[in-house]
Amino acid sequence: LTSELQKISGLSVISSSATRRYSDSTLPLKQIADELGVDALVTGSVYRAENDIQIFAELTDPKTLNIIWSQNYKDTVNNVIQVQGKATLAIASAIRVVVTDEEQARIARDLEVDPGAYDAYLKGWQASTIFTAESFDTSLDHFRRAQELDSDMASAWSGEARLHFLRGVMEIAPFKEQMEKARAAAEKARALDEND
Fold this sequence. Notes:
This protein is of the alpha+beta class. It has 9 helices and 3 strands, in the order αααβββαααααα. It has helices spanning 2-5, 16-19, 29-36, 80-94, 101-107, 115-128, 133-149, 154-169, 175-195; strands spanning 41-49, 52-60, 67-76. A 3-stranded antiparallel sheet has the order 1-2-3, with helices on one face. It is globular, with a radius of gyration of 17 Å.
C-alpha cells in the first residue's frame, strides 16, 4: 500500500525500506511512531492461496492505540491492484485527507495483473531488500521475468529502476551505467503508469 499512499499529495508516507526494521519489533506503537515522526501507522498482512488473496489492513492512532480504520479484502490475484486502490482510498477517507480527481484516477485503476508476473515481481522485490550483489542479481532476474510475462507492468519496471539505483549507489556495478539503466527503467515505468 505504501506506493499507492505515496500518490496522495496530502499525505507524508515513510518508505517501506525505512519501516522494514519494525516489522518484527516488540516496541510500543507510540515509540515506533515517534521514531518515524508519524501521526498514524498502517499495518497489515497479505495471505495467498493459489489464485486467491486476502489483504488485511489497519490504520492505528499510536498515541491512543485506537484503531481508526480496518478492513479485510478478499479477491483474486488478478485484481490485486484494484484491492490496493480500494484500501488506499479508504485510508485517505478515514483520515479525511483530500484526494484530487487526478490522484483518485491513478489509484482506483481498473487494472488486472497476470498472476505469474505478479509472483515474479514480488520475488524480485523481496530479493532486492537483502542488499547483496547476489540478491540484486536474483531480483533483476525476477523483475525481468515479470516484464516478460506482462510488459505493461509498471511496478516491475519501477522495481528494476530502484534496483539499478541501489547497485550504483552501493558500488556493486559502475555508478554511471547503473544510473542510466535506472533512469531508462523509471521512464518506462512512469509512461506505463500514466497510461493505466
